[in-house]
């Protein structure tokens, strides 16, 4: 009887470890940090990496309490390193993946960095990598990106990271895979931080900001202006917009411009 109970426990543990996730919310703070090379402890919490184990690039966890995932090209310029999510339930097109990324100050002078997000069917073979959005050129400040994830039979989200020069350093943090309702500003460190969400009826954008924006412009995915105006008591009407992905240009009270996006269902 004890043997049967033990076997049952082992089977349950294995099934739990390989469970497909419906959502992801990972800040990497509980990961084991470093070292930069192949000796770092991976996989971690069912996250994996694909990297060159000798002269770079390397993908690893870095930091102490507020940890991030770090890409470091070392001696291999223009060479991809990959961060791969735990297995997810096959995407049905209703979710987005959101993350923060930056080209860090430790990079070589003149270096640039990119991230391309895609879906794969393996944690080790990237030949199935299918992009879900254009390549993102990274900023030297922490920037948040939100991308719609299309329906697919591939069940891993892969972040393809490339540094243009030797000793290029790129960091990622706060990966969220969830329902496509929340849109936030790209520059999360801005003093003019503005957050908004689509309301439950999909009729308005509800804003939270220290000062109301001066003006809001909304463009369709094809680049055509779909709406423009000002807030009405922390709300902006989108009831006339069709279902789809929209891009916003928000002029803050201080005259700065913030770009973001949202999805209307």
Helix content percent band: under 10%
| Number of DSSP strand runs | 20
Topology as H/E string?
Answer: HEEEEEEEEEEEEEEEEEEEE
In angstroms, what is the radius of gyration? Answer: 20 Å
Count of runs of 4 or more consecutive helical residues: 1
N- to C-terminal distance = 53 Å
Q: Tell me what portion of residues adopts beta-strand conformation.
A: 35-45%
- Structural class by secondary-structure content: mainly beta
Strand count, sense and barrel status of the largest sheet are: 6 strands, antiparallel
Shape: globular
Keywords: Signal
InterPro entries: Secre_tail
Protein name: T9SS C-terminal target domain-containing protein
Walk me through what this model shows.
The chain is mainly beta and 265 residues long. 6% of the residues lie in helices and 42% in strands. It has one helix and 20 strands. The termini are far apart.
């Amino acid at each position: 009887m004890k043997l049967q109970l033990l076997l049952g426990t082992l089977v349950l543990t294995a099934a739990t470890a390989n469970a497909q996730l419906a959502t992801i919310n990972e800040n990497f703070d509980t990961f084991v940090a470093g070292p930069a090379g192949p000796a770092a402890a991976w996989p971690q919490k069912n996250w994996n990496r694909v990297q060159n184990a000798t002269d770079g690039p390397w993908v690893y966890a870095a930091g102490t309490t507020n940890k991030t995932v770090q890409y470091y090209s070392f001696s291999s310029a223009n060479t991809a390193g990959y961060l791969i999510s735990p297995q997810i339930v096959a995407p049905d097109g209703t979710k987005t993946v959101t993350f923060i990324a930056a080209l860090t100050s430790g990079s070589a002078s003149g270096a640039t960095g990119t991230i391309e997000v895609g879906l794969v069917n393996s944690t080790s073979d990237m030949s199935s990598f299918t992009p879900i959005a254009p390549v993102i050129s990274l900023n030297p400040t922490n920037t948040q990106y939100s991308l719609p994830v299309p329906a697919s039979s591939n069940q891993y989200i892969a972040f393809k990271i490339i540094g243009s020069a030797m000793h290029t350093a790129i960091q990622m943090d706060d990966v969220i895979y969830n329902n496509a309702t929340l849109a936030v500003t790209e520059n999360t460190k801005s003093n003019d931080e503005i957050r908004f969400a689509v309301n439950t009826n999909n009729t308005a954008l509800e804003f939270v900001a220290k000062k109301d924006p001066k003006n809001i412009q909304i463009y369709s995915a094809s680049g055509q202006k779909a709406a423009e105006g000002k807030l009405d008591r922390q709300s902006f009407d989108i009831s006339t917009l069709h279902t789809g992905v929209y891009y916003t240009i928000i002029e803050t009270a201080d005259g700065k411009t913030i770009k973001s996006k949202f999805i209307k269902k």
